[in-house]
Design a protein that fits this description.
The complex is a heterodimer of chains A (426) and B (233).
Chain A: H1 3-16, H2 18-53, E1 60-64, H3 70-73, H4 81-88, E2 93-101, E3 106-114, E4 117-125, E5 127-130, H5 132-135, E6 153-158, H6 159-173, E7 187-192, E8 206-216, E9 224-227, H7 228-238, E10 247-252, H8 258-267, E11 271-272, H9 275-319, H10 321-329, H11 334-374, H12 390-416, H13 420-424
Parallel strand pairs in A: 5-9, 6-8
Antiparallel strand pairs in A: 1-10, 1-11, 2-5, 2-10, 3-4, 3-7, 7-8
Helix pairs in contact in A: 1-11, 2-9, 2-11, 2-12, 9-12, 11-12
Chain B: E1 2-12, E2 18-29, E3 34-38, H1 45-52, E4 60-65, E5 68-69, H2 75-84, E6 86-89, H3 101-106, H4 118-128, H5 144-157, E7 162-166, H6 174-189, E8 193-197, H7 201-206, E9 209-214, E10 217-223
Parallel strand pairs in B: 3-8, 3-9, 6-7, 7-8
Antiparallel strand pairs in B: 1-2, 1-4, 4-5, 9-10
Helix pairs in contact in B: 4-5, 5-6
The chains are: A alpha+beta (426), B alpha/beta (233).
Chain lengths: 426, 233
C-alpha cells in the first residue's frame, strides 16, 4: 500500500475517531511523560552526585598502604619509592602520582581583611603533598612546586570545601561568597608542628605562608593540597617519616583496565582507598533504585495505556468490520488492513509520546524555576535537578510508539483476519 | 469471462450442522453478458458471488475470472484481482459514512497502483452515474438510489470487466430501483459483464440470462438470445 494512501486513510479514520484517539494518546502521554520526568530527575540528581558531591574519575585508582597485613609486619606493604616504581610499571598504568601527608600538626591563625570583611580565625590545618601532574589543570597561579624555605607554599583547596563554605559557613557568619577564581592569590599563615588540640612532635614550630593557587576536585576535602616536595621537606625538617608515601594515585589508560589494576594492586599487599567511590556508588545506587521504582511505575502506566489502546482499537475494529470488508472488496489485502490499524496506533503513540516527553520537559523546567526561586541555598544545590540526554528524549517518543504498536498488535491481527464475505453479506 | 467448475461450498451453521450451499455447481459467463442468478433466500446466491469475486477462497473446485485462476492466488494477488478485475455492488451500499461521495469512489485508488488522474476519474465515474453535482456530499445526505449509484461508481473506478451485484435493488423503492436497473442496462450495453444475484423480478427481467440456484446447482431458466449482441438496445 502506498504511503500517501495509507496516510490519507489513517488521517480520515483518526479524524472520525478523534475522541478515542485523544484519550488513547493521553494515556500514552501520561506514561511516557512520567517516565521521561523521573528518568530525567534520576539522571540529574545522579549527575550532581557524580560531578559535584563525589567527583570521581573512572580512570583513577587511589592506592594506600595496607592498614594491617602480614606484609606490613614483615616490612612490606609500605609505599616507598621502590613500591611506587612497581606500581607505575603495572600493565595499564598511564601515570602514578605520589602523595604524602604532612605528618606534623599545623594550624592557621588569621587576623585581617578577607574579601571585603574582617576575619579573625584560628584552626587546625591538614595538608597533603601531591605531584604537580595530578592537579596541573587546576593551578591558576604560578607553578605548583616547592618554592623553598621562606617562600609562600602553593596550595590548592577543594572545590567541595568551597561549596560547603559558600552554602553553610559563609551565610551563617555573614562572610562573603567566594568563587574559585576569587580565592586565587589569597595568602594565609600556617604554622607547622603546632596544634591547638594535640601535642606537637617536639621539634621547632615553622611558620610559613600558604598561597591559594586554585581549586581542584582532586584536592583533599578538609585541608590544603600542597606540592609533594614541600610536604617531604616539612616532614624531613620535623624529623618524621619523609620516605614513604601516604598514597599513590594511579591513572589507568582506560577505565576498563581499572578492575585488573585493582586486583594487581591488592596482589602487592596494598589497599585501594575507594571510600569516596563507594559513597558515590552507594548514593548513586540509592538514586538509581528510586529512579527505577518510579520508572517501573511509569512503564506500568505505559502498559495500561497499551491495554487501553488495545481495547479502544478492538472496539473500533469491531465497529468498522463492514468498512474493512469494503476495503477488502475494493482491493485491500490483509497486510493493507493490518497496516492501516497499526499506522493509526503509531500516529496515536507518536503523538502521545511526543506530547508526554514535551510535558515532562516543561514540568522539569517549571520545577527547576520553582527550586531556584523557593528552595533555600544548600551545598551542591544544582542549577538543574534534571538531565535529559537525547536518548531519553528520543526514547520517550519511541516508547510511546512502541506501547501503541504493542496495544494495536492483536486488534490489527483481528482486523486483518476479517472475513469480507461474512461481513458484507446481507 | 467466468468459468467455474464443480464448485462445492459448505459451512457450519449455528447448530453445528454442516450445510452444503453449492454442490458441484458449474457456470460459464461470456464476456459482455448480463446474468441474473435467482433463488430463495439462503440458497447460496451471495456465496456464489463472493467466490467469483475472490472474497471467499474456502471452497472446492475451480474458478477462473477474466483468465485469472483464483485458486492458488495468495492474499496480495487476490486483493489485486479484486482491485482491477471486478467491481462489487452490495444491497446495503456499504459506503463509508465519513467520506464524501467522491472519496468513497476514490477508495479503490488507495489499494491500487498510483494514478495521477484518480480524482478526475472518480469525478467522471460520478458524472457517469448522474451524481457529478453531489460529489462532495456525505452518504447520509444522499437518497438510497443515489447511494447505490455512488457504490456503482466506486465499483467502476478500477475499470473492471465484471460487475458483481448482490441484490442491488433490494433496499430501493420501485422507482429508484428501476433507475438503478436502467443504469446496469446502460453499463451492459457499453460492454461490461454484469452478474447480479437477486430475487427481484424487475432485475432478472433486465438480464439476458437468468440462472436459478437449485439444490446447490445452477439451472438455466431463461436466455434472451435477441439481446446477445453486445450493444443491442
Amino acid at each position: 500500500m502506498r504511503l500517501d494512501a495509507l496516510s490519507r486513510l489513517v488521517r480520515l479514520s483518526l479524524a472520525r475517531e478523534r475522541k478515542g484517539a485523544f484519550f488513547s494518546a493521553f494515556g500514552v502521554a501520561m506514561g511516557v511523560g512520567a517516565l521521561v520526568f523521573f528518568l530525567g530527575l534520576g539522571l540529574g540528581v545522579g549527575r550532581v552526585i557524580r560531578e559535584k558531591i563525589f567527583p570521581t574519575d573512572a580512570r583513577l585508582v587511589d592506592v594506600v598502604p595496607s592498614a594491617v597485613s602480614l606484609g606490613s609486619l614483615l616490612g612490606g606493604g609500605k609505599l616507598d619509592a621502590a613500591t611506587v616504581e612497581r606500581l607505575a610499571a603495572l600493565p595499564g598504568v598511564e601515570a602514578a602520582w605520589r602523595k604524602m601527608n604532612v605528618r606534623v600538626p599545623a594550624v592557621s591563625r588569621y587576623d585581617g581583611a578577607f574579601f571585603g570583611t574582617r576575619l579573625r580565625m584560628g584552626m587546625e590545618v591538614l595538608a597533603v603533598g601531591v605531584e604537580p601532574g595530578l592537579v596541573k589543570d587546576d593551578v591558576k597561579l604560578g607553578e605548583f612546586r616547592d618554592m623553598g624555605e621562606g617562600q609562600p607554599i602553593p596550595a590548592l583547596v577543594s572545590t567541595r570545601l568551597l561549596e560547603l563554605y559558600n552554602k553553610t559557613f559563609a551565610p551563617a557568619r555573614k562572610l562573603p561568597q567566594l568563587s574559585a577564581n576569587m580565592i586565587v592569590g589569597f595568602v594565609m599563615p600556617v604554622e607547622f608542628n603546632r596544634s591547638y588540640v594535640a601535642a606537637s612532635s617536639g621539634g621547632p614550630t615553622r611558620s610559613a605562608q600558604a598561597q591559594v593557587v586554585g581549586a581542584s576536585d582532586r584536592a583533599m576535602l578538609a585541608g590544603l593540597t600542597i606540592p609533594l616536595e614541600t610536604a617531604v621537606r616539612i616532614n624531613r625538617e620535623a624529623g618524621v617519616d619523609a620516605d614513604t608515601f601516604t598514597g599513590v594515585t594511579l591513572v589507568a589508560k582506560d577505565p576498563s583496565q581499572v578492575p585488573a589494576l585493582i586486583d594487581a594492586v591488592k596482589g602487592m599487599g596494598l589497599e585501594i582507598d575507594d571510600q569516596e567511590r563507594r559513597m558515590a556508588e552507594n548514593t548513586g545506587a540509592a538514586v538509581a533504585l528510586v529512579t527505577s521504582a518510579l520508572a517501573l511505575l511509569s512503564i506500568l502506566i505505559c502498559i495500561l495505556a497499551a491495554v487501553n489502546i488495545a481495547h479502544a482499537l478492538s472496539a473500533s475494529v469491531r465497529a468498522r468490520a463492514k468498512e474493512i470488508g469494503v476495503m477488502q472488496a475494493v482491493g485491500a489485502s490483509r497486510a493493507d488492513v493490518r497496516g492501516i490499524v497499526l499506522a493509526e496506533a503509531a500516529v496515536v503513540g507518536l503523538a502521545g509520546g511526543a506530547a508526554g516527553t514535551a510535558a515532562a520537559l516543561l514540568l522539569a523546567f517549571g520545577v527547576n524555576r520553582l527550586a531556584s526561586t523557593y528552595l533555600p541555598s544548600f551545598p551542591f544545590k544544582p542549577d538543574s535537578f534534571f538531565s535529559f540526554p537525547w536518548p531519553v528524549v528520543l526514547g520517550g517518543v519511541v516508547l510511546g510508539l512502541f506501547a501503541a504498536l504493542a496495544g494495536a498488535y492483536f486488534p490489527a491481527r483481528r482486523a486483518a483476519a476479517t472475513d469480507p464475505a461474512r461481513t458484507l453479506a446481507g | 469471462m467466468i468459468r467455474a467448475r464443480d464448485i462445492v461450498k459448505e459451512y457450519v451453521d449455528g447448530d453445528g450442522t454442516k450445510v452444503r450451499v453449492l454442490d458441484g455447481m458449474s457456470l460459464d459467463v461470456q464476456d459482455g453478458d448480463f446474468v441474473a442468478v435467482v433463488g430463495p433466500s439462503g440458497s447460496g446466491k451471495s456465496t456464489l458471488l463472493h467466490l467469483l469475486g475472490g472474497l471467499d477462497v474456502h471452497y472446492q473446485g475451480e474458478v477462473e475470472v477474466g483468465g485469472v485462476k483464483l485458486r492458488g492466488l495468495d492474499d496480495k494477488a487476490l486483493a489485486r484481482f479484486r482491485n482491477t478485475h471486478v467491481g462489487f455492488v452490495f444491497q446495503s451500499f456499504h459506503l463509508i459514512p465519513n467520506l464524501s461521495a467522491l472519496e468513497n469512489v476514490l477508495l479503490p485508488s488507495h489499494f491500487g497502483p498510483a494514478r495521477e488522474d484518480a480524482r478526475k476519474r472518480a469525478e467522471a465515474m460520478l458524472e457517469r452515474v448522474g451524481l457529478g453535482a453531489k460529489k462532495d456530499r456525505a452518504p447520509v445526505r444522499l437518497s438510497g438510489g443515489e447511494r447505490q449509484r455512488v457504490a456503482i461508481a466506486r465499483a467502476l473506478f478500477g475499470g473492471p470487466r465484471l460487475l458483481l451485484c448482490d441484490e442491488p435493488t433490494g433496499n430501493l423503492d420501485a422507482a429508484t430501483g428501476d433507475g438503478v436497473i436502467q443504469l446496469f442496462k446502460e453499463l451492459h450495453r457499453e460492454g461490461l459483464t454484469v452478474l447480479a444475484v437477486t430475487h427481484e423480478e424487475r432485475m432478472s427481467a433486465a438480464a439476458r440470462r437468468v440462472l436459478r440456484l437449485k439444490e446447490g446447482r445452477l439451472v438455466e431458466e431463461r436466455a434472451d438470445l435477441h439481446l446477445a449482441t453486445r450493444g443491442a438496445p
